[in-house]
Amino acid sequence: MLTCRSLAFVLLALAAPSLAVADPGVARVLSPAGLVVVAAPAQAGWAFPDGGALVQVADVVESARSVELFGVSLLGGRLVLGHVTVGDGARVDNAMLDGRAIAVMPNSVVAIAGAGWAIVDQQAVIPLNAGAIRHTRVSLRLHLTVSISGAPAGTEILVGYSADAAATRLTGAAREIPATLVPIYRAAARRYGIAWSVLAAINRVETSFGRNLSTSSAGAIGWMQFMPATWRAYGVDGNGDGRTDPYDPTDAIYSAAALLAANGARHDLHSAIWLYNHSERYVTTVLALARSYANGDATPAAIGDAAALDDNGATFSPITLW
Known about the structure:
The chain is of the alpha+beta class. The chain is built from seven helices and twelve strands. Helices cover about 25% and strands about 25% of the residues. The strands form two sheets. Strands 2-1-12-11-10-9 form a six-stranded antiparallel beta sheet, with no helix packed on it. It is globular and about 55 Å long.
């Protein structure tokens, strides 16, 4: 438990100039020295590291005066923020720690056993030169007191900066995604808490965004390549027409998100994708491609046909019935 003395230290630390966040952003990982390790752009579905063990943001929606984050998960799902609004109407909704609701008030300090501490709805005053100050609001600030997933003790994760937001646009590698599919990925991301960039990456690897809908040699079908029995178990009517159709992109993308969620993607994204297709090369390819989409890389990660990504060198069903 944080003592009054340690709480005072935490609140004083909020005023350190190295933590000033001048530019709008979705999430940022800082080294113990306060240097930026990685920052999430406003188009994320984003995870860090690639498997999402430290932080995942399922989707981001921007307007002229606010940014909304959906499905924020930290520390493998121990700390969850269901919905975050940054900018006008700033708020944090449905905050949970280890399955229990957190009462959110400005600068709420939460001790996280075995990991560190967090501040929910941080509202800080940052001193600048010549007596000037800057008011900064961060939806959640997580401080690690131990090393986790390769991040050393002292690492900080900031989620949701209070600042004016620029218009949403896909940049870099994400430009290869058909514009008509992006709203479907994002809607599925918000419903199931799966990064939209991961759904896009799987769709790209499996059927090149629906350009190749041939039945695989293993019998997998549709936009996201489900085995028929798996489709019967997990198929979702994403477009609300009363049918579940693996050849309808909305149904297929929602169903893939539902399956990944059932596979525990919020807790372990790497494992969930592996359960989608039992191939480490497949997982590596999907995560690299998703990172390219989320981070605005200039060119997409190299990909291959899903059937060619089996570790054993044989044709492999993109979704295995277990």
